[in-house]
Amino acid sequence: MRNDAAASAGEQREPPKNTLKAAPMMLGRWGFRATLCLGMLGAGAGITALVGGISANGTFWALLPGSVLWDFFGGVAFVAVFVAAGSGVAPAEQGVASGLATTAKEIGGAMGLAVFVAVANAGPGARPTPARVLGGLHAAGWTAAAVTAAGGLIALILKRPSAPAPQDTTTVETLEGIGS
Q: What is the DSSP letter of 179?
């Protein structure tokens, strides 16, 4: 990142603009469970295509299809996660729900990265050669693709959201009456 990255860091982390247009349409048509499943499976396919394009003499063009797929479907999953986190939550609790989802995403990302780095480093051994390093990267990539796809399938078996509970306004009405 550049030194002036504070302002641009958020721009670099947000989902791509085309995803921000497609994800709401998918959510409206299929709901967040199916959209999350599609996003995760598509992201897994993108990771698979990206790993398939990694070679010792590879080019940017070999990585581009996987990068585009991963970018798009990862963004769909990102939007679906935050819609799911806020669904059925009282307006006053939306910040807590979003904060919890963000925290879980960040901690999960850090833990996942640690696992994938461990998998990648298991391949090269004590005397890494380019072929061994590449093998480690492939192993980590295939693992990431499998875990991502499994997450998409798990999204299908998530409990359906229940109807939001009616809000109790007794306390608010009582407090409003105290000041009169």
A: T
Helices 94-122/60-86 angle, 10° precision: 150
Rounded to an integer, what distance in angstroms lies between the CA atom of residue 164 and that of residue 86? 11
pLDDT at 147 over 60: yes
Backbone torsions φ then ψ of 167, nearest 5 degrees? -75, 140
Rounded to two decimals, what is the model's pTM? Answer: 0.76
Length in residues, the chain: 180
- The per-residue DSSP string of 70-107 comes to HHHHHHHHHHHHHHHHHTT--GGGHHHHHHHHHHHHHH
CA distances from 39 to 34, 83, 106, 133, 169 (A): 8, 13, 18, 29, 38
- Per-residue CA distances from 78 to 36, 38, 55, 130, 147 (Å): 8, 11, 29, 34, 16
pLDDT tens for each residue of 30-81: 988 999 999 999 999 999 999 999 998 889 999 999 999 999 999 999 999 9
* Residue 47 near residue 74, CB atoms below 8 Å: no
pLDDT reading at 179 higher than 80? no
In this structure, the number of other CB atoms found within 10 A of the CB of residue 136 comes to 20
Spatial separation of the C-alpha atoms in residues 89 and 38, rounded to whole Å: 24
